[in-house]
Amino acid sequence: MLVDFNILPNESRVWIYQANRSFSDQEIEEISSRLETFISNWTAHGGDLEAGYCIKYKRFIVLGLNQELNHATGCSIDASVNFIQQLEKDFSVDLLDKMNVSYKQGEFVAYKTLIDFKKMAKEKAVSKNTIVFNNLVNNIAEFKENWEVPASESWHSRFLN
Questions:
Q1: pTM of the full predicted structure?
Q2: I need a labelling partner for 52 at 20 to 30 A (CA). Which of 84, 109, 121, 161 fits?
């Protein structure tokens, strides 16, 4: 059951998929349409899942699931991953590689491999104050509070001196 992402409870589970490039406006329109269809039909053991999505910075797809109604099961999580994999193929984009880092350079969102990010940290091209995207947040409350944070407040801090 598709609902507005902004009305999901703070305890709702989130999954964040970061793209290795920005989506065009036309791609966002198409991806949004596909997300709405997928979420409208997303179930767990035959029960409706109350879920929503948002697309941030033309680069991040965020799925939110209200687990007070029904919990995601292995099969429903597999279905969502298969859906994301299909988006990867159809739009020639990488959404599942967790070994990459997105961070802000002013209002621009940059995307680097973890190896390049470590190098940049060593060279002081990024600092503890660099705003990074912590895609490991688990729920909407964490998403609101801890998704866009200074590197010093994220797992990225291990690479900074």
A1: 0.92
A2: 109
